[in-house]
Amino acid sequence: MKPVTSPVRERLIEAASELFYAQGLRAVSADKVIERVGTTKVTFYRHFRTKDDLVVAYLLGRAAIEREGVGSAIGRAGGDIDTALRLVSEGLGAVACSPGFRGCPFINAAAEYPDPDSPVRRVVDEHRAWYRTTFEQLIAPLDLPDRAAVADELMLLRDGAMVAGYLGDPAAAGGAFLRGCRAVIRARE
Asked: Which residues form the HTH tetR-type domain (predicted)?
């Protein structure tokens, strides 16, 4: 069954995205989102059977934005791996320095939804798998031994940069990510 697409549905997702990211997934009730949009519970439930369905829609939207940004950076690099990593790190740094930054929405969601079989965790896991695969494809031309392990290490660096951008100095997150990526790749060459 395909979700109904409408301006109200999009407004619900937009309001939920702002509230979920700023306050946390569990802290924001469906009623809070309904109130923010100025609609009714009937309208809400016409678009989302449960609040978790709205959380999934929020995360899918965030995933699309991240994939677009990373894909654009890789595309602009024209096949140069170091340039691609630099552009990804610049994007990460810009996000970390943006007002209201609270870290990675996927790491945050995983902390709030520990059940690996929940629909929310499945979206988190799918997005993380996409990132890992993207890193592995990015470094493939380097013909490094155990590219999967290198991709795992790059993912770990990305996660650390997102957490450090929230808990530490956001201006340093992107640069630290890039230096870490370069060090991991050099160590495997």
From this structure: 6-66
3-state helix, strand, coil in the chain (%, to 5): 75, 0, 25
Return the structure tokens found at 55: 């959380």
> Domain containing 182 — which CATH number?
1.10.357.10
pLDDT digits (tens, 9 = 90+) for 21-46: 999 999 999 999 999 999 999 999 99
37 and 69 assigned to the same domain: no
CB atoms inside a 10 Å sphere around CB 96: 24
| Full 3-state SS string of 5-35 | CCHHHHHHHHHHHHHHHHHCCCCCCHHHHHH
> pLDDT (tens digit, 9 = 90+) per residue, 143-160?
999 999 999 999 999 999
